[in-house]
Amino acid sequence: MKLTRLTAVLCASVAMPAMATELEVTHWWTSGGEAAAVAELAKAFDASGDKWVDGAIAGGGGTARPIMISRITGGDPMGATQFNHGQQALELVEAGLMLDLTDVAEANNWKEIVFPPSLLDACTVDGKIYCAPVNIHSPEWLWLSNKVYEDIGIPVPTTWTEFVATADQVRAAGKVPLALGDQPWQSNLAFGALTIGVGGLDLWKKVNIDKDMAVAAGPEMAGVFQAAADARALAVGSNVQDWNQATNLVITDQAAGQIMGDWAQGEFQVAQEVAGTDYTCLPGMGMNEYISTGGDAFYFPKNDDPEIEAAQKRLAAQLVSPEVQVAFNLKKGSLPIRGDVDLAAANDCMKKGLEILAGGNIVPTGDILWSPDTVKQAEDLMVEFWKSDMAPADAQAKWVEILSAN
C-alpha cells in the first residue's frame, strides 16, 4: 500500500508542475464567440497548474501574423502562437525557430487519433511534427436569417441559386441581401466558397490540387467569376469592416445572409440564436456539401528555458486531449480534430459538418496547397474586384497569372 501511494505521488508530480509556469499565448480570436472558445483553453491550462497569459491581437490573422512573426524572428518569442494549418509558419520552422513536438505527438498517439491525416501532415516538416492542430474550420457556409424570409413571406432558401433569386424581394423589404465585411480575407473566402458551390468539387480540385491553369482560365471558372460579380452586387450596402460585424447583420435580421466559415456559429451562440429556428446554415452553399479541412494549430517558438519548454509540451498535449477538444470546439463552432470525442451537445449546424466529415467529402484548405505569397496576392485581387466594377473576365485573367507564378 505504501508503494502504491508513493507511486501515485510520483505520477502526480510528473503530471502537475511544482510551480505554475506562465506561457504567453498569442492569437487573433477576439470576437464574442472566439473569446468564449479561447477561454476554455485558458481555463484548462490554468486548471492543470500552469498559467495561460492571453496575448490576443485584434484585427484578424492578416494583422496578427506579421506581429507574431516579427516577435519570433526578432528574439522576443511568445510561449505559443496560433497559425492556420498550412504553410504560414513553414519558414519559421525551416529557420529552426520552432519547437519540435514529435515526442509529444508520439507519446499521445497523434498519428492514430488526428483526423483527417492531412491536419498532422500540415504540421510535419522533414518527418518532424511542429504544431498541435486544434480544430477543423470549413470556410464555405451560407448563413441565413430565418426572420428576414418569414417577414417577407417566402421560404428560406436551401441553395445559393435560390438565395440569389430572392435578392430583389430582400432589397424591397429594406434589407441587405449579402453581408460582407471589408477585411481582405473575407472577399477571398467568398470567392473560394463560390468556386465549389457554383463550380463544383471537380473544378476546384483541378485548379487547386492539379494546378491545371488551362482549367483555371476556362469557361467553368468564368462562370464562377460571374457568380462572384453577382454576389458583389448583393453585398452593396453592407458597410461593415470585421467578419463578426457582418455576422451580426444576419443575427439582427438586417441582412438576409452571409458567406462565412463555421466559426460564425460562435457568434450565433453568444447571441442565444438557435440553429434551425433563428438561422439556417448551408454547408457548401447548399450546392455541393463538403468540408474544407482548414483550421487552426498552435506552434511553440523555441525557448532557452527548460521550464518554459516543458510547459509548452504540456500545453501541446492538452490541446489535443478529448476534454479540451470538446469544450473548445463546442464554443468555437468548429469540428474536433479527433473522431473519438463525445459531441452529443453539438447543434444542428455542427452535426451537419460532422456528417459530411464522416462521409469523407473533404478537401484540403488552400493555405496548405498555395504559398502565403500566392494567397496574399489572391486576397489583394479579390479586394480590388469586390470593391470595383472590374469585369469578371479581367479578374479571371489576373487570377490565373497569380496562380501560374506559384
Please tell me how large the radius of gyration is: 22 Å
Largest sheet: 5 strands, mixed
Structural class: alpha/beta
CATH topology of the largest domain: D-Maltodextrin-Binding Protein, domain 2
Beta percentage is: 5-15%
Residues in helix, %: 40-55%
Span of the ends, CA to CA: 65 Å
Oligomer: single chain
Please, how many helices?
22
Q: Considering the protein shown, what is the CATH homologous superfamily of the largest domain?
A: Periplasmic binding protein-like II
- Total domain modules: 2
Class of the largest domain in CATH? Alpha Beta
Keywords:
406 residues; alpha/beta; D-Maltodextrin-Binding Protein, domain 2; five-stranded mixed β-sheet; four-stranded mixed β-sheet; 13 strands; globular
Tell me what the structure shows.
The structure is a single chain. The strands form 4 sheets. A 5-stranded mixed sheet has the order 2-1-3-12-6, sandwiched between helices. It has a 4-stranded mixed sheet with strand order 8-9-7-10. It has a two-stranded antiparallel ribbon with strand order 4-5. Helix 2 (32-47) packs across helix 16 (264-270), helix 11 (184-199) packs across helix 14 (219-234) and helix 11 packs across helix 21 (372-386). Strand 1 (22-27), helix 2 (32-47) and strand 2 form a beta-alpha-beta unit. Residues 1-16 have low confidence and may be disordered. The protein folds into 2 domains: 22-137 and 294-357, Periplasmic binding protein-like II (D-Maltodextrin-Binding Protein, domain 2, 3-Layer(aba) Sandwich), CATH 3.40.190; 141-289 and 370-404, D-Maltodextrin-Binding Protein, domain 2 (3-Layer(aba) Sandwich), CATH 3.40.190.10. The protein is built from 22 helices and 13 strands. It has 406 residues and is of the alpha/beta class. 49% of the residues are buried.
